[in-house]
Specification:
By secondary structure, the protein is mainly alpha-helical. It is about 70% helix and about 5% strand.
């Protein structure tokens, strides 16, 4: 019985750590505000891409612009 209690407590602690990491919304070395800024940059980069429905591809120029925006060398 005791081994099950210890295992259950360890499992609960691990689950709490995982849930805390997911809910915090930031990488371990960054502030939450930075994560939101990164999400906005991704969204803006995706909105600028023009998808060609005939070929199923994105124009290379648009792709290069999006990569530059995401890398910060805009």
């Amino acid at each position: 019985m005791t081994a099950f209690a210890v295992f259950g407590a360890g499992l609960a602690l691990l689950a709490a750590a995982v849930v805390w990491g997911i809910l915090s919304g930031a990488r371990g070395d960054e502030e939450p505000r930075t994560e939101h800024e990164r999400s906005d940059a991704r969204r803006l980069a995706l909105e600028e891409l023009e998808f060609d429905y005939l070929t199923g591809k994105v124009a290379e120029e648009d792709y290069d612009k999006a990569r530059q925006r995401l890398s910060g060398s805009d």
